[in-house]
């Protein structure tokens, strides 16, 4: 799933490609992706792109006062095309294409963006709105962890309010802190040497300092590594720098212990027992059921 660092890098890459260009057409290949009807999608045709920004994990293409907003969900991605086909895409259950944004012709070519979504669970969303706040998911976002306003004191207030809720869930909840998903919450907790199940409101001042630094450093370093990369390179960059997420059964790069996993209904988390839980494996309900 694209998270804050990848969406930040996508916004930076697309800002350089799109700013000042005209959007000539937006084709919908997966009708379930379009979540708004007013203004109509045709309203963005002929507009000039002013900026491309990020709100949490939402990608916002601002064009002549309108905002073409994407949420890439779990399996969505954006691919730049130097030239898009002249024939509009047809809806197809076999295709991963969800949306195509066509730009004005340049040097005899009509470039554009293909927004795709892999898998059978379709959650990618497209909104055309007059203000980003018109998207409910953006309006509900918590503070951005890369903003200067996100301080240690701000984090302390958040964790105190969350009480006995587990750190993993607090970090992932977009209405609490914006932009952190499953992968980077695993990475942050590993860097902080904390259990994903640790209650949020129980941190000492030293632990708070450590967690705050882990959030800023983990996300900041990922953004720095991604800056300047093309969209096609971002997935590989992310995967190659993960310490525990998606590395179940492999050696922890810090201590050498085996990375373990806890599975849930539709997701899983990875952690290092030595680094994070005092050497004790966390209970995995899925494995417990299989062993009965």
Walkthrough of the structure:
GO terms for molecular function: 8-oxo-7,8-dihydroguanine DNA N-glycosylase activity; damaged DNA binding; DNA-(apurinic or apyrimidinic site) endonuclease activity; lyase activity; zinc ion binding. Belongs to the FPG family. With 292 residues, the protein is α+β, with helices and mostly antiparallel strands. It has two domains: 4-139, N-terminal domain of MutM-like DNA repair proteins (Alpha-Beta Barrel); 152-291, Helicase, Ruva Protein, domain 3, CATH 1.10.8.50. The protein is 31% helix and 20% strand. It is built from nine helices and ten strands. It has helices at residues 4-18, 136-139, 152-162, 167-172, 182-192, 205-226, 231-240, 273-276, 285-291; strands at 23-28, 49-55, 58-63, 66-71, 76-81, 97-103, 112-117, 125-129, 260-263, 268-271. The strands form three sheets. Strands 1-6-7-5 form a four-stranded antiparallel β-sheet, with no helix packed on it. A hairpin with a 2-residue loop joins strand 2 (49-55) and strand 3. Helix 1 (4-18) packs antiparallel against helix 7 (231-240). The longest helix is centred in the C-terminal third of the chain and has 22 residues, at 205-226. It is elongated, with a radius of gyration of 21 Å. Residues 287-292 have low confidence and may be disordered.
Total beta-strand segments: 10
The CATH class assignment of the largest domain is Mainly Alpha
**How does CATH name the architecture of the largest domain?**
Orthogonal Bundle
Q: Roughly how many Å is the radius of gyration?
A: 21 Å
Low-confidence stretches: 287-292
Average residue-wise pLDDT: 93
- Number of discrete helical segments: 9
Q: Which strand-content bin applies to the residues?
A: 15-25%
Gross morphology is elongated
**Oligomeric form:** single chain
Task: Measure the end-to-end span.
Answer: 33 Å
Strand count, sense and barrel status of the largest sheet are: 4 strands, antiparallel
**Helix and strand succession?**
HEEEEEEEEHHHHHHEEHH
Number of domains: 2
Catalytic activity: Hydrolysis of DNA containing ring-opened 7-methylguanine residues, releasing 2,6-diamino-4-hydroxy-5-(N-methyl)formamidopyrimidine
GO molecular function, one term: DNA-(apurinic or apyrimidinic site) endonuclease activity
Domain FPG-type: 243-277
Domain Formamidopyrimidine-DNA glycosylase catalytic: 2-93
